[in-house]
Amino acid sequence: MRRTSLLALLLTLLLTLAACAAPASEPAGDTGAAADTAADSAVTIPSEPVYGGNLTVALDGEIDTIDPHVSVTIVGFQVYTQIFEGLVEATPTLDNVVPLLAESWEQTDDVTYVFTLRQGITFHDGSDFTAEDVVYSYDRVMSEDFGSPRRADLLPIESVTAVDDYTVEFKLTQPFAPFLTKLEVLRIVPADPENDPATNPVGTGPFAFVEWITGQRIELVKNENYWQEGRPYLDGVVFRPIAEPSTRVVELQTGSVDMLNSVPSKDVAALDADPNTDVYRVMGVVRDHIGFNMESPLFADNPNLRKAIGWAINREAIVEAIMFGYAVPAQIAIPSTHWAYNPAVEGAFGYDLAKAKEYYDASDPKPESITVKVSPTYPDQVKMAELLQQDLAQIGLDLQIEQLEWSTWIQQVVSEGNYEVEIVLISGGNDPDDFFYQWHRTGEVFNIQRYSDPDMDQMLADARVATDQETRRDLYYQIQEKLIEDAPMIHIIYRESIIATTARLQDFTMTGRYDMNFRDVWLTE
What is the C-alpha separation between 77 and 67, in angstroms, rounded? Predict the structure, then answer.
């Protein structure tokens, strides 16, 4: 299976959400309202939305691709969701999905869903949106030769059939609890095999592609024929990759950009106090972990070494000193507020250098030095590595830190498996499948630890097809306990999702996975 870059979640797996029938936990903290109030703002806000203006967004890195069937980075997700839409979309609280290009759907039996499509929708090139485009998009994702990272999400689908121009039938191989959640990743492209969405992105979304100058900007323009009447308000959107965190903040403060897709923790308080900026915060599904290459002779059959490192992580210090309090310690991928979270894993790893030393002394092999690969694109992970380096030195283990440019990190760690230890942040969705299946099942594209265990594979498969929540909860409890015991990756923190904007931006809704839906936003004069 072709491996591509990890983040995405970041989202877009990073990106999957709860099925309509599946209950989910509410995000902690704010649920999308800006931290600043209108009274504190230096901006006079009209009573009605204003049309016009271009929104400039600073991204914390370059996107991987605009192709929605290939991109797996958060920044890619933030861009391509302006252009491409799916049959369903997530609610802002990530606890449900609602119709988008589909007008409605009906589940006719355990394995059959029939979708009625909206009529009168056109793509940016003027062609009509029909059931043929849905079938084509599905076939494109599922082509093994194409190698889409979305393919695993849709594997339980046996067939997709155009019943007529505006009716599509999805037939599953077996009951699949997160089906509607997973369907969100199927962004619809025109049924034109000659067109490459990576170079000519054509969708049905509120904004159409103009140009992408690598390293400088991505420019989008208002879709004048958008199917949602009166939307969008903006004339266009420009995305600028600005890797240096302090530069991004200055650009917002001086008005050169209108939004930061990611805010350095140390700058949150200052931006929050500034009447010209608004800060949006929500405890979401983004977490940091330390991962081990399970094909490396150092770690493959050496759980004691992995656990030694797990017990040397000072999570409380990371939360306070590195994240400035905008995070909480983590033990496992799934948030503690989720219905599938196993409370038995709480405290599975703490900060205890004496215990870390015991595990290290029992390691076989017992290396004197190991290397962790991080990227300065995400400076928090560099600081985490430096703190861990100090603590591991106290038990006699030398941690070498290798910093790689982001694309090089992706190539070496994700694509090639050329690493011993890695630290990175990743995202999830809401259904428990989103947090475990692709990260821990043998051979999956996001399983960058190369972890492989037949019992884990079976439990992950069983949890997908179970239809009652109690059975699924029991399976996910077992999955979490096994992951703690095997420790292919060890979690560090759950971080707040934080976005900052000009106070001129109105009606922006924050989610826990860094969505940027600009369909309904507008700028004051």
Answer: 9
